[in-house]
Each structure stands twice: as structure tokens, then as C-alpha cells.
Write a structure and sequence with these properties.
11% strand, nine-stranded mixed beta sheet, Rossmann fold, binds NADP nicotinamide-adenine-dinucleotide phosphate, 14 helices, 9 strands
Length: 360
């Protein structure tokens, strides 16, 4: 059996179990985002936590990042984690550091990152952690980050594209790009491109496979009707924050797939995989104020905590089962099938060329 076949598990009838929000959206396209988010959490995500059945990887939705990396020695490896100052990113840093990885936190808010760093250092006093400022919505900030990282003269084994925003009102970035698309996709596209040579060289010289891990979301299932609005990417008219988030997460997966194929063609020892972390209690909708508080309070009973939310990220970054596995989409540490629009190679190539043209 091929490696891919080993890891692919069926989607639990997900095809027939759309998220409740999409059903609602069809009837009521202007429902309020908080209502949408609550309903958007698919039954699969919530009920998954209650299941503890066997899976190809041996891990379940309730497995934590610590559990899925137990016994793995990451010392000698260097990883960059974006959006490392909170939520899934902060937990990912903590667990990578526990496994001996030297972590570079790419963050917009260095003082928040410093607090995370101090907490980690209390647990692991010998931890190697750097903080470098990074605003993914600004292409000049991405370039500065790469310059600052290269000044450290470190190798790079693992790149974790985790930072993200969700369901924000329409806004253009300083480069004039719609904010979800700029932050979630384009900034990471540029970051990956600028670091790729370093990752390839590190893999070649060390003989250790490089890994790019892209934190996407099952929201990729709900982009605009045309998938990516190439002709209207920055248009306020027709803007919908839920679909804009879905579009950016679809872009994450298309980027992962296309990058994986290109690296395979080059015979580079670097694997690329995307993932959905599950429905996780974080501050991702902090701009909702009171409703975010309510969601976090109720979410504690039915959603994943960050310990579980970071599991698939850390699994893809470190686990030996992932060696040689590339171009897949993982949920709960298992590869799952994607919907057809996310494996459309024509769309992925078009997005690649479009992203390059936006960066010129
Ligand atoms: N939570 C879920 O249920 C869920 C579900 C599916 C997918 N995801 C994905 O998981 C990833 C992590 O999200 P989370 O849930 O952990 O939320 P979170 O706690 O809000 O973390 C997001 C991180 O991204 C950072 N970030 C936002 N905009 C940035 C920018 N322009 N430049 C650099 N960093 C930026 C944030 O930094 P600041 O602190 O400075 O804002 C924060 O550290 C996201 O990609 C999200 O789409 C989450």
C-alpha cells in the first residue's frame, strides 16, 4: 500500500454533513457573523471530540500536541512559527520547544510574544526561542522578517504558517490587498518563497527532510462561488467576511498543493502539508468583544482546547509517520480527502501566478 493510501481516511460522511452555517447561509445570506461562526462549527468537529476510535495515525481528535509528539527528539532542528503570540501558535511553540526544537516566533505583537516566551522558559529554562517582528499583512514587513532571520545565520528545518485572522470587516492592507487574503495567504506565500532556498539547502546539507506546515481550515469549503475572486479580490462590493475567510483558507490549501508538486518535481527533500486544527477555543474572533467571550466560555465544554488544536500542527512538523508524505490535507492527524475545488490543479497554478503578479 502506498504511503498516501495508508494515511488517507474517509471524511466521515462529511460530504453529506455540510456545516450548519452554509445551510443557513443559503437561506439567509446576511446572517450575523457570530451566529454564523457558532453554526459553522461542523457537527463533525464537535462530535469528533467525543470519539476515541482508532485511526490510521493512531491519534484522535482529543489527542494533544504533547501526546502526538511524545518521545520525539527535535533537538538540532530550527522552526519558524508565525502567529506564535497566542492560541494554536503559542501552544505549538511550547510543545516544539519541549521536544528540543529551536523556535523563532514570527509575531505582530512582540510584547505578547515575550509573555509567551517567558512562560515557556519557566517550563524549559534551556529553551532556545527568538522573537522576530512580522506583520503578514505587510509585504515589506515580511521581507524585513526574512532579513532579520537570515542575520541569525541559522538553518531552517520547519516552517509553520499559522498566523491568521477571521471574519473581519472589509479592509485593505497597506499594500491595497483585502485583509484576509493579504494576511492569511499572500504574506505567507511571500514568506515561504523567500525562505524556501534556506529550507532546501538545510535539508540537503543535514540529510533531514524539511517540512512546511500550512494551517488552513475546513472553512475552505465555503469560499466565494468562483473559489478565488481573481478579478474582484479587493472589491468591497459583494464582500462577505465569512466567504473572504473561506477564500483565504482555500488559497492556503491550493498553495500547499502547488508548492508540494513543484518541490517533488525538483526532487527537493521538503514536504508540504496543510491542515484543519478543528474548532478550537482561541481569541481568533477577539474583535467580536462580548460575543467572543461568550463563545470562549461555552466553547470550553464542546470545542478543542489549544492543547488539542496544536496536535495536528506538531504532528506534521515532527512525527516520523509524515516522512515523505506531501501534498495532503490533515484533520486530527490523519490525511483526509479534499473537495474537488481544493484539488483543482488549474486553479492552484492560476493562484500561484496571480500571487506572484500581486507581489511585483
Ligand atoms: N480557532 C479555530 O477554531 C480555528 C479553526 C480553523 C482554523 N484556524 C486557524 O488557526 C490559525 C491560528 O488561529 P488561532 O485560532 O490560534 O487564533 P489566534 O489565537 O487569534 O492566533 C492567531 C495569531 O495570528 C496572528 N496574526 C494575526 N494577524 C497577523 C498579522 N497580520 N501578522 C502576523 N501575525 C498575525 C495573531 O497575532 P496578534 O496577537 O498580534 O493578533 C495571533 O498570534 C489561523 O490560521 C486560523 O485561521 C483556527
Amino acid at each position: 500500500m502506498s504511503k498516501k493510501a495508508l494515511f488517507v481516511r474517509p471524511t466521515d460522511g462529511d460530504e453529506h454533513q455540510p456545516c450548519l452555517c452554509s445551510a443557513l447561509l443559503l437561506k439567509k445570506p446576511r446572517c450575523s457573523p457570530p451566529v454564523c461562526l457558532c453554526l459553522r462549527l461542523s457537527l463533525n468537529d464537535m462530535l469528533g471530540l467525543l470519539r476515541r476510535r482508532s485511526s490510521p495515525s493512531g491519534f484522535s481528535p482529543s489527542s494533544t500536541a504533547k501526546e502526538v509528539t511524545a518521545g520525539i527528539d527535535g533537538s538540532g532542528l530550527v522552526a519558524i512559527v508565525t502567529g506564535a503570540s497566542s492560541g494554536i501558535g503559542a501552544e505549538t511553540c511550547r510543545v516544539l520547544v519541549l521536544r528540543g526544537v529551536h523556535v523563532i516566533m514570527g509575531v505582530r505583537n512582540p510584547s505578547a510574544a515575550e509573555r509567551v516566551r517567558e512562560e515557556i522558559l519557566e517550563q524549559v529554562p534551556t529553551a532556545k526561542i527568538h522573537i522576530i517582528q512580522l506583520d503578514l499583512s505587510s509585504m515589506s514587513s515580511v521581507r524585513r522578517f526574512v532579513h532579520d532571520f537570515c542575520a541569525l545565520d541559522l538553518p531552517l528545518n520547519i516552517l509553520i504558517n499559522n498566523a491568521g485572522i477571521a471574519f473581519v470587516p472589509f479592509k485593505l492592507s497597506e499594500d491595497g490587498i483585502e485583509l484576509h487574503f493579504a494576511t492569511n495567504h499572500l504574506g505567507h506565500f511571500l514568506l515561504t518563497d523567500l525562505l524556501l532556498e534556506k529550507i532546501k539547502v538545510t535539508a540537503k546539507e543535514s540529510g533531514i527532510e524539511g517540512r512546511v506546515v500550512i494551517v488552513a481550515s475546513d472553512s475552505y469549503k465555503h469560499p466565494y462561488r468562483e473559489g478565488i475572486r481573481f478579478d474582484k479580490i479587493n472589491d468591497k462590493s459583494g464582500y462577505n467576511s465569512i466567504l473572504a475567510y473561506g477564500q483565504s483558507k482555500l488559497a492556503n490549501i491550493l498553495h500547499s498543493n502547488e508548492l508540494s508538486s513543484r518541490l517533488k518535481e525538483q526532487d527537493a527533500k521538503v514536504v508540504v502539508n496543510a491542515l484543519h486544527p478543528g474548532a478550537v477555543v482561541t481569541n481568533i474572533v477577539r474583535h467580536w468583544g462580548f460575543l467572543n467571550g461568550l463563545l470562549c466560555t461555552l466553547g470550553k465544554f464542546i470545542l478543542k482546547g489549544v492543547e488539542q488544536g496544536a496536535a495536528t500542527v506538531c504532528y506534521l512538523a515532527l512525527h516520523p509517520q509524515v516522512a515523505g508524505v506531501t501534498g495532503n490535507y490533515f484533520v486530527d492527524c490523519n490525511a483526509v480527502e479534499l473537495k474537488s475545488h481544493a484539488i483543482d490543479t488549474g486553479l492552484a497554478k492560476r493562484l500561484w501566478d496571480f500571487s506572484v503578479s500581486l507581489l511585483r
